[in-house]
Amino acid sequence: MSTPRPDGDARSAPGPFERGTDGPRVILAGVDGSSTSLHAVAYAAGLARRQRSRLVVVFVAEGGPAMAGLVPGAGAVVQEANTEIGTRLRAELLPVAEELGVEVDFRIARGDPVTEISRIADEVLADAVLVGASEQAGHRVIGSVAVRLVRVGRWPVTVVP
Predict the structure, then answer these.
(1) What is the biggest distance separating any 2 CA atoms in the chain, rounded to whole angstroms?
(2) Are 130 and 30 in contact (CB under 8 A)?
(3) Is 11 exposed, middle or buried (0-12, 13-18, 19+ CB in 10 A)?
(4) HSE-CB of 34 using CA atoms within 13 angstroms
(5) pLDDT value, residue 3
(6) pLDDT of residue 156
(7) Do 41 and 93 contact (CB within 8 A), yes or no?
(8) Residue 128 host element (H or E)
(9) What pLDDT does residue 87 have?
């Protein structure tokens, strides 16, 4: 399919998955502290090192279970715990990435993981998104973050076991 270029040239312009470079320039990895998400970050760091890409690691602090709203003060406790997890992950991952020689931008966001990962991936012009496979049985019914990101369909998504 041919898309006209801004200069009026009839040749086709690069599509949304090709930005005129060899290999990915920005790789985004979602992390939640699970073993599969840590595997995804490790895999993404290796890709970023080999491809000389920038690595963006995103931790999304979810609002917590719906029941937290029924217990006074529970929402604040859940938010504090999520922030602590994100801070701990940043402290563990950044020195390792520096040792590997990988440029890392670690971000902590709040909200729905798919919405926030999608927003940040679009913001940083990610060429690829990597996430860990879900370890929760319920996600087979309602869909995991990985499946939902694949359905968004704006970037290649790699699901790491």
Answers:
(1) 63
(2) yes
(3) exposed
(4) 15
(5) 47
(6) 93
(7) yes
(8) strand 128-132
(9) 85
Residue type for 49, please? R
Architecture of the CATH domain 26-65+80-160:
3-Layer(aba) Sandwich (3.40)
**Count of other CB atoms within 10 angstroms of residue 132:** 25
Answering whether pTM is above 0.85, one says no
DSSP 160: E
CB neighbours (10 Å) of residue 52?
A: 12
DSSP states along 79-107: HHHHHHHHHHHHHHHHHHHHHHT--EEEE
* Of 40, 56, 116, the residue nearest 82 (C-alpha): 116
pLDDT at residue 55, as a whole number: 96
Quick check: 53 and 124 in contact, CB under 8 A? no
Amino acid of residue 94 = L
Q: What is the mean pLDDT of each run of 10 residues along the chain (161 residues)?
A: 47 50 87 91 94 94 59 69 83 87 92 94 96 70 77 90 89
